[in-house]
Design goal:
The structure holds two protein chains of two kinds. Chain A is built from one helix and eight strands; from the N terminus they run βαβββββββ. By secondary structure, chain A is mainly beta. In chain A, β4 and β5 form a beta hairpin. In chain A, 40% of the residues are buried. Chain B contains five helices and eleven strands; from the N terminus they run βββββαββαβαβαβαβ. In chain B, the strands form two sheets. Chain B has a six-stranded antiparallel sheet. A five-stranded parallel sheet of chain B has the order 9-8-7-10-11, with helices on both faces. The N terminus and C terminus of chain B are likely disordered. Chains A and B meet through β1 and α1 of A and β6, α5 and β11 of B.
Chain lengths: 90, 252
């Protein structure tokens, strides 16, 4: 496995541009290998134009997020059943 | 502290540098005053944004080094000689300067003082920064939760927070610190310089039967090696949380 990746922790700020809650602690299921994964633990590649997250089990793409001024593209093709905590009182 | 769990829109805030101090020849701690800071958990990070006069803008993530303390936030930045952002932060930034930050970010690689399990911290290089926030949050909460830190660094001169770790590990509160030097060792040191391997982990890490909460932070290769060795040694993968820095020790 190559060593030029980070992990989902580093996508926390970019994901908070899009979502109202922290997603790094969220769990989901990889659509390719059906592994349950925590978003903080995906392999994150930051050298592409944007962020590409891959499954730590099978290395298939979990999500892609590209930002431009005033606009974002989010492709969550590789993850289903996302579960995350809502703020107290929600 | 409870405020840290209330999430609103993540906005950029203009912080003011109140102090800088050199930790080692290659790393500096920057103290920020962040008006309206909502508090943070140990292990969280901030994004820092620099904008040039021509409008070019770039951002990086830095772990928070301090425990929650009002509007005060400390970052420790390691100088990457060919870095785009760290030379400015580690060499140029001075007290009184503004700095754009947003955070706190991250809800996975965090330690909460109310959790009772013993804690094992494993740091590679500047990966010690978010783990130091955990050590400080523990001291600030006065919980006495048993903590062990295994800190792998090039040599004694590159060790961050050395004086503070010496003091905190000698105060009888239950913090143990083990240094693993990879390049140079002090005279009379018990081990030759070496990378962290299974024997040292067996010696310095809580045994799996204690079911410690484990936090590993460092360069990608270090984190993957250590996490793999810990699982092989019988630690439950679900109790191991990891955070990777870039190959050069930096972050995106």
């Amino acid at each position: 496995m190559s060593q030029d990746h980070l992990d989902g922790n580093a996508a926390g700020g970019a994901l908070r541009d899009v979502f109202a809650v922290d997603l790094t602690a969220a769990t989901g299921q990889c659509t390719a290998c059906e592994r349950t994964l925590v978003l903080a633990e995906v392999l994150l590649y930051t050298h592409a134009p944007g962020l590409v997250a891959r499954c730590p089990g099978c290395e298939e793409v979990v999500f892609r997020l590209v930002r431009a001024p005033g606009r974002a593209w989010l492709d969550m093709r590789g993850m289903t059943c996302v579960q995350f905590e809502l703020p107290a009182g929600s | 502290m409870a405020r840290a769990t209330v999430l609103g829109r993540l906005t950029w805030r203009v912080a003011t540098v109140t102090a800088v101090r050199d930790e080692t020849p290659g790393a500096r701690t920057i103290t920020l005053d962040v008006p309206g800071w909502p508090g943070h958990l140990a292990g969280q990070h901030v994004d820092v944004r620099l904008t040039a006069p021509d409008g070019y803008s770039t951002q990086r993530s830095y772990s928070i080094a301090s425990a929650a303390d009002g509007d005060r936030v400390e970052l420790t930045v390691e100088l990457l000689p060919d870095g785009e952002v760290s030379p400015y932060l580690a060499r140029v930034l001075s007290p009184g300067d503004p700095l754009e930050v947003r955070g706190p970010i991250g809800g996975w690689f965090v330690w909460r003082p109310e959790t009772p399990e013993p804690v094992q911290l494993v740091a590679g290089g500047s990966g010690v920064v978010p783990l130091m926030a955990m050590v400080r949050a523990r001291a600030s909460a006065g919980t006495g939760t048993p903590f062990r830190l295994l800190y792998s660094t090039r040599g004694p001169r590159s060790a961050l927070y050395r004086a503070e770790l010496d003091r905190r590990s000698a105060d009888g509160s239950g913090l143990d610190v083990t240094y693993a030097y990879t390049r140079e060792v002090p005279d009379g040191w018990e081990r030759p310089p070496a990378r962290v391997g299974a024997p040292l982990l067996a010696e310095a890490v809580w045994p799996p039967e204690r079911e410690p909460a484990v936090f590993v932070c460092g360069p990608t290769g270090f984190v993957e090696t250590v996490a793999g060795l810990l699982v092989s040694a019988g630690h439950d993968p679900r109790l191991i949380r990891t955070e990777r820095f870039g190959p050069s020790g930096g972050r995106p």
